[in-house]
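Pilot study result, target chain (302 residues):
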Amino acid sequence: MIAVEKALEQYGAPIYVRHEIVHNKYVVQTLEKKGAIFVDETHEVPEGSIVMFSAHGVAPTVHEEAAERKLATIDATCPLVTKVHKEAVRFADEDYDILLIGHEGHEEVIGTSGEAPDHIQLVDGPDDVAKVEVRDPSKVVWLSQTTLSVDETMETVDALKGKFPLLVSPPSDDICYATQNRQLAVKQMGAESDLVIVVGSRNSSNSKRLVEVAKLAGAREAYLVDFADEIEEEWLRDVSTVGVTSGASVPEVLVEGVLEWLAQRGFEDVEIVKAAEESITFSLPKELRRDLRAEAAAMSEG
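Predicted structure:
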């Protein structure tokens, strides 16, 4: 969201964004009001315009399409996604079969697959493992969509290892730290809550997983809402403890709105559940940093 806002300030409207910058309805609506235009495909962007690639990443062919249309590109791909892309390229260069654990049709999966389409096959959960075929069982590696549930990913990995005992794991954990931390907190919360409310959009993979994790942890019920006014009064019947969490890309103001709604109905005592400290920060896209530095330098000289 900050990257798009900074781009609008720097270059003016419109800024075209290929796919939703993050999967959150409020963020998208807010940016649209400021002059962002979200498109599904690169050919929808007028020639010579500025286009930003979303946090989910894109395939190399998309960069080629943008160059053909003479578009100025701003790559806002999440660094964790970029890391998976680089791993895909490296393992493909070493002629591995790459088993990408993720959900079919998700933008991140499409982008990662595009890095090495001849080497990557999608594994959409443990039930998909039976149909996986590889050229050489001694040269197989798994990678994953960064926003999956940790438990879900490892369940699929375990099934793959049962079929391919020499399966290689990526050099480090590629699950998004914000996703993982929220899941850990929800496991604690779900065990102690009658009801868990997850603030997030329905097209957000990590938000939907939080609902599932809460139920598996012991919550009697869990619901996904974009805004506080979507909560139904009947959900609170016979409920003494409510857990509230949010997807990785949800603005704090939306969570505060849910807490305020609950406080007005008697749930005023708030206890913070924190599974880990989040100290990682990500820089603005390099293209935007470059132009901001150039502008600052010009102003200082002036």
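One observation from the pilot: The beta strands are 15-18, 36-39, 50-53, 72-75, 97-101, 120-123, 140-144, 195-199, 221-225, 242-246. A full batch analysis is planned for the follow-on phase.
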